[in-house]
Amino acid sequence: MKSTPYSRELEAHVSWLDSITGAALGVLAVASGIYTYLGVSSLLDDNGALSVFAAISYSVAVSVGIFVFWSYMMRLLPAVRTAGARVGLLCSMLLGSVAIVAMSSWLNAAALAGAAAVEQHLAETIGDYQDSLEQAHTTAVTAQGLQRDVSRVRQSFQDLSEQEAEGSLSGLAGRGAVFRVLNQKSAELAALEAQIGAQDPLIEQAFIEGNEILSRMRSLTVGTGAVEERSVEFSEEAVRLAGLITQLRQLSVAPLVARAAADLDASVVLPELDGRTDANRGDQARTIDSVLGVLSTRAESLQAAAEGVMAMEQPEETTYTPISTADAVILYAGNFVPSWAGAIAIDLLPAVLVFILAITQAAIRAGRREQSIEDTLTLTELRAALKAAHDMEAIHDHERPRRQATPPAAAAPGANVEPLPSSDRSA
Length: 427
What we know:
Layout: H1 3-43, H2 49-76, H3 83-144, H4 146-165, H5 177-197, H6 199-221, H7 227-250, H8 254-264, H9 278-310, H10 325-331, H11 337-369, H12 373-376, H13 379-405, H14 422-426
Helix pairs in contact: 1-2, 1-3, 1-11, 2-3, 2-11, 3-6, 3-7, 3-10, 3-11, 4-5, 4-9, 5-9, 6-7, 8-9
């Protein structure tokens, strides 16, 4: 394959592509500037004329910067021939690309996927609130299970009091001192049991209301309309839900049961022994001591159960923090890879054109090195060469008669003259 047609074909293609490259680069720069404007607008709180002017100025600067930067790269990088110059321009292109991503691409991504990223943030927040609500409800329901422990202890003291009424404990039938001690603790535990039972409807009501709020929050996440307006309503619902979660945490009766268990054996009011004889009163005293021992054991068991509930993992404090579209895109960048790819590609696509031009120019130069001067001589250059040769011949023809008519130059005065031979002088 000859080099001359190959190089000339590439040069023709490059010449035609040069006519559209500037327009294409301008379109890409303008498109990037438009999306940059949308991204900047989402960051500005004020919607006044000054903010609009600032956003337009920034987007115009980005468009001009992108157009000028890639114009420089397209012209200079394919033209340089030394390795040092190429490395320097490649480093400059890399640095410029990073600057373009920093000043434009992330704003383009915010414009492309900002609303979806904010909705993703709302969905993540709903998940956190739901976990907190369920954890608080689980803790409260588990604490309600202490009611069975309290009921078991109460029932045991009630049974003992009935046995004492029949005289099975101290040997004295009736409602004496031992009976009053047992009945006193049974009544305390019955009051605690009733207080625990009263929490059930409150816990269920709070849990149902919390799920209703979560349902409204989910509707706001996938609803229609501007995401900023939905975020405001979402924030209001989040405040209500946070209050319900706090209420559920406070409805847990575990701390109450723990305190009651600690006071169960410490708050015994010992009645006066009412036995008729010293022996009867001694039997009552010994029975009361046994009852106090049992009471202490049951109190420790009840307190351990309550502390086990209190040791359960508590729901974390969840607070909804409003977030801008640009911040949301960065925070959830992994979920919006296609949007990021499109935002970066619209800014860095000219880099591909730069490499294409560099490769093509290198191929053209390689083809030229293999050509002779006759192969690279164009028609215009041939005409110029023929005209120059014709002009030189005309000048030469014009000067020839003048040179022929000019006599030889006379000898200068005082010049050395060769003497004649002696034979000539004698003649």
